[in-house]
Amino acid sequence: MACDKEVANVEWRIKVEEDDTLKRKLVGCMWAVTAGVALKLCMFVKKAWELGLNDPRKFIHCLKVGIALSAVSIFYYWKPLNDGVGGNAMWAVMTVVVVFEYTAGATICKTVNRMCGTSLAGFLAIGVHWVASRGGEQLEPIIIGVSLFLLASAATFSRFIPTIKARFDYGAMIFILTFCLVSISGYRVDELLDMAQYRMFTVIIGSILCIIVSVTIRPIWAGFELFVLVTGNLDKLANSLQCCVSQYFGGSEAPEAENDEVSDKKLLGYKCVLGSKATEESMANLARWEPAHGRFNFRHPWRQYVKIGASMRSCASCLDALIGCINSDNKASDEMKKNMSSISMKVGANCASVIRELATTMRNMTKSSKLDILVTEMNSDAQELLGFLSSYPNMVNAPSHNAKLSTQTETAPSDVPLAAKVEIPLMQIIQVVTVASLLIEIVSRMEGIVEAVEELSDLANFQPEMSVKSKQHSADSKISPDQQNAEEADTTLQMV
Amino acid sequence: MACDKEVANVEWRIKVEEDDTLKRKLVGCMWAVTAGVALKLCMFVKKAWELGLNDPRKFIHCLKVGIALSAVSIFYYWKPLNDGVGGNAMWAVMTVVVVFEYTAGATICKTVNRMCGTSLAGFLAIGVHWVASRGGEQLEPIIIGVSLFLLASAATFSRFIPTIKARFDYGAMIFILTFCLVSISGYRVDELLDMAQYRMFTVIIGSILCIIVSVTIRPIWAGFELFVLVTGNLDKLANSLQCCVSQYFGGSEAPEAENDEVSDKKLLGYKCVLGSKATEESMANLARWEPAHGRFNFRHPWRQYVKIGASMRSCASCLDALIGCINSDNKASDEMKKNMSSISMKVGANCASVIRELATTMRNMTKSSKLDILVTEMNSDAQELLGFLSSYPNMVNAPSHNAKLSTQTETAPSDVPLAAKVEIPLMQIIQVVTVASLLIEIVSRMEGIVEAVEELSDLANFQPEMSVKSKQHSADSKISPDQQNAEEADTTLQMV
């Protein structure tokens, strides 16, 4: 017995000790988990904060939402106003929450959709209700049920139709919502009319408040964002193109190591062009809801920006292939590269200056006087490059001559004497030929961008450059800071 | 006087006649306008109907919405049930309208968001309300107003953070909505607890109903859609590539005129690949909410499909440049084309068969045993093409020999004797060289697709082919009709 007791005692002690270490372990574990979660949370908050610092307009938008909500809740608290809408002021609050969006265009689009959907569905539902109430107690639920089923299905189907989806997607949903609310609720028709009136009134109040806050306090216009995105992408494309050509052909004058990152960023700018299709389309859809702002009219041809974007993407995919070829294994002979460098770099620089001129045209909203000259120059340079390639067998010369060439690069390539022919294996010129012909292909695709921008300038009635020259300077200096700001933001915009 | 009267008479008559013609014109005009509107409406309805016929699942979705709404409105009409939630059954109806989406993933995502947002905001709001009610009548509106402002701003800002935007965008909105509803409404706390309970209960009922209808009646899984989109795009890319190479090099065996449209469609299939980035990303975001379905587990690596899509796009943009070069003005010499046709077409066909094998791998969810061999073959063919190009100066022969070559195309190119050298100007081989080197670039970019698919096969634990060979046959025949259906739909999916 005594022995048993002792054993039990020991066991108990062991248990207590075990419990103690377990407890300690548990506490330690909990601390570790808490610290881990806290650290992660800190990192998350820090990242989010940086996101906001990169684009302060995000902070401003949040403040705007807060202001709009506070304003509409004052309306709720102010008794006479709330009584005026039958105590339904909560609908106004809900409208603000649901309708307030980042860009003014999106806010207006949702507002209009909500008002149209609500009123259309309200009238229809009251009509159906009236018909059903005549049908007697037995028919009433059947009539309402069938009409609900049919209308909800039809409205849902309409959301698949591209034109409706682009403009009235939200409206169709609100239509179903309101129809359900009104037709199902077993109110009498005269009560319904009151309710419909209050609901319309509160929705309108909330909507107007949203539009006012969205448009007056540092407005973010979808149209302007689209404009900045497209013109910024034009610049990026130009930089990428020029950077890539000059890096390849002008390899000898390599940029310094500290500039590597900058030039890499420049080189890969075209990827933004390739990836901005969806953003452009949604912006263009929203922009058409916006009133005239800045230098844009109400019916500014926003769809044209999508077309410009598409033609840019076609160029950018060619540039992507070009950069791929440059990075591939089979290298070109340095001689050939040297021979072609001046003309190729000229083509690249001309392409880039055409693109930049197009961007300037769009920024200044003027018809460029230089554009035609630049395009002609670009085309003739491309022809020259092609001609240079065609005459190449005459150029395959002994290395001795090439050494001479490299010292006098100013000599026009066609001037080279035909003496001392030596064949260069095709292997060594594959890359250069590919790069050159892709450059020519890019030049031919540039036509698409030029045409699209010219169509825009016709549609939007751009003025000839001369007549606005004097105005330009002031406009330029006026717009640039805002634009700069927006341009900085546009990378983050695409990130999100 | 008599004369005057007569004049007046005549005038009157003229006026009457004028009025008559005006009326007739007006009626005619109105008829024309009505007919025009009716015609346009007819066209619109016809188009919409065709949209539905192309993808009957759209019709089914509409019926599902109708069914869900009817079911939830029965719940509203059934008095005991409605009384059980304090007459708040309308919230369940609203939940169904707002939450029901096309794919099961989207429905589940919105459902979970709505439930989480509602409950989180509800608890917070009750807490704030309780604190405010302790603060006395003067402090109460200030505490509530400030907390509303801060929380609404913070929740709005969280919607800009990419990870939250991808998963909890709707939840953040519902959070603000519920917080406003609860904190603004001047109810007492115990009333609030009741209301919160009812609201939670109705939201859950509506949500569960939505999920049941969405998942049980012909469910449309975002994951499966993504899978069909990506594998279909792989096939399209393979077809485009093979079609383009064989059209260019095998021009002599031109397809018949009636097949032109079909082959054009095949050729341009790669454009779908270029344009499906946004669809893929949104599908991948939705798919992760879905439970296991078909052969996909709950944690199927959907993000990997986006990576596969990205690597496909990189190939497709190269193909785009290739097709651009083929359509450009400077034509290649037929001789060179003929010499290179067999090897180039082999590269094209091999590339296509690698892509098709990848698609098969994904469809069968097996690790392919052939893939390594095919990739090796493709790479060695590409090397051969490069080698052929490098040895080309030896190939520039007199036309007499080329005539011989064309009759015995089986002769390996490297066997050509070195006799009778004649130079072909570089001009005539630019295009062929470009096409060949872009082909080689495409082969090198194929590596990205192969790697991405192999990573997928590791992540999703694909079985080795041998062990599932017997199962495969039945699975193949079981899946194909559904897949066919989905594949047909996928073009319309991208359209919308």
Keyword list:
transport (chains A, B), extended, 2 strands, 496 residues, Aluminum-activated malate transporter 10 (chains A, B), transmembrane helix (chains A, B), homodimer, 18 helices, transmembrane (chains A, B), mainly alpha, disordered C terminus
Sequence-ordered SSE layout with sheet pairings:
Two copies of one chain form a homodimer.
Chain A: H1 2-54, H2 56-77, H3 79-84, H4 89-99, H5 104-134, H6 136-158, H7 162-184, H8 189-216, H9 222-249, H10 260-267, H11 270-274, H12 277-287, H13 303-326, H14 334-364, E1 366-367, H15 371-390, H16 399-407, H17 430-459, E2 463-464, H18 469-495
Parallel strand pairs in A: 1-2
Helix pairs in contact in A: 1-2, 2-4, 2-8, 4-8, 5-6, 5-7, 5-8, 6-7, 9-12, 9-13, 9-14, 9-18, 12-13, 13-17, 14-15, 14-17, 15-17
Description of the molecule:
Chains A, B: One of its GO terms (biological process) is malate transport. Chains A, B: One of its GO terms (cellular component) is membrane. Two copies of one chain form a homodimer. The C terminus of chain A is likely disordered. In chain A, helix 2 packs antiparallel against helix 4 and helix 9 runs parallel beside helix 13. The relative contact order of chain A is 0.08. Chain A is built from 18 helices and two strands. Chain A is mainly α. Chain A is 79% helix and 1% strand. Chain A has a two-stranded parallel sheet. The first copy, chain A, is extended and about 95 Å long.
Strand order of the largest sheet of chain A: 1-2
Helix segment tally of chain A: 18
Q: What is the strand content of chain A?
A: under 5%
Structural class of chain A: mainly alpha
Low-pLDDT parts of chain A are 394-422, 472-496
> Multimeric state of these chains?
homodimer
State Rg of chain A.
34 Å
Q: Would you list the SSEs of chain A in sequence order as H and E?
A: HHHHHHHHHHHHHHEHHHEH
What best-fitting shape of chain A do the alpha-carbon axes yield? extended
DSSP, total strands of chain A: 2
Main location (chains A, B): membrane
Family (chains A, B): Belongs to the aromatic acid exporter (TC 2.A.85) family.
InterPro entries (chains A, B): ALMT
Subcellular location (chains A, B): Membrane
